[in-house]
Amino acid sequence: MFRFVLKRLLLSVPVLLGVSVVVFALVHLAPGGPVRVMLGPLSSEELVRQIRLEMGLNRPLYVQYGMWVFDAIQGDFGVSWTVKQGTPVTDIIVERIPLTVELSILSMITAVLIAIPAGIISAVRKDKPADHAARIAALSGISIPDFWLGIILIMIFAVQFSFPWATGGWTPPWVDPVANLQQLFLPVITLGTAYSALIARMMRSEMLDTLSQDYVKTARAMGIGARETVLKDASKNALIPVVTVIGVGLGQLMNGAILTETVFNLPGIGKLLILAIDRRDYRIIQALILFIASVFVFANLAVDVLYAYLDPRIRHDGN
C-alpha cells in the first residue's frame, strides 16, 4: 500500500506543475492587468510603466514564473495587489476556506443521503412508478444549472416568503450554529442537487448489475429475504464503484461553489476568485487555481487509496 500511495503522489507532481504553467500563462496573457486597476483608466502610460517596473511585471514571463514557483514551494504566494493591497495571499485564502469547505462537505453529505437510498429504490423497483420518478428527478437535477436553481430559491424564500436567512451572508458555526445552518440551507440544496442526481444514477446502474449476479439469485433461492439480500449483500458491492464518484465529486463541489457563493453572496473561495479575476489580482488567481487543482488531485488520490483498500487487485495491478 505504501508503494501504491507513493506512486500516486509522485504522479500528482507533474499534474500540479502543468496546471501552474497553464494558469500563469493565461493570467498574464489576458488583456488588462493589476496596474490599470490600481491606477484607473486615466493614468498615463509613463506612470503605468513605472509601476510595472516596481512590481516586476516587466520581466520575461519565464523569469516571473520561476520566481513565483520558487516562493510558492515555500508557501509564500506574495501579497495581494488589488483585492486587499499589501495583505498576504495565504492569509486571504485561509480566511475564506472554512466557508467553502463547510459548504462542500454539507452538500456532499446531503447528496449522499438522498442519492444512495434513491438509487437503491429505483433499482429494486425497476420500471415501476418509484423508478420512473427517481429517474426523472435525477435527470432534472443534472439538467438544471446551479445558478438558475439558486436564483429561483432566493426568489421563493427571500422575496416571496421574506425569510431573513435566505438573503445571503455567513455566520461561522462556532459563533451561531443555528444561524450558520439556516444561511447554508439554500446553498447546500443548490450545490448538492446535481451531485445527488449523478450519484443516484450511478447507484441505480450498479445495483441493477449487482442484483443480476448469480450469488444474489442463489441467496434468494435459498430463502434469504429480499431486504437482507439487498441491504447486506447487493448494496455493499454496488457501493464500491460509487465511491469513486463520491470522492471525485468533492473536487467538483469546490468548482461548483464558485457560482453558488456568488449567487448567495457567500464570502468563500469561489467569490474571492471571481473578485480576483475582476480586479486582475494575479497572485490570488494563481494561488486559488492551484489550491482547487490540489483538491482535485488529492481527492482522486484518496479515492484510489480507498478503492485499493476495498479491492486489493487494484493495488497489486498498480504496483
From TrEMBL:
Looking at the record, the residues that make up the ABC transmembrane type-1 domain are 97-307
Specify whether Transmembrane is a keyword of the entry: yes
The yes or no answer to whether the keyword Transmembrane is present is yes
UniProt keywords (A-Z) are: Cell membrane, Membrane, Transmembrane, Transmembrane helix, Transport
Q: Which Pfam families match?
A: BPD_transp_1, BPD_transp_1_N
List the subcellular locations: Cell membrane
Q: Name one GO cellular component term.
A: plasma membrane
Classify the source by domain of life.
Answer: Archaea
Protein's name in the database: Dipeptides/oligopeptides ABC transporter permease
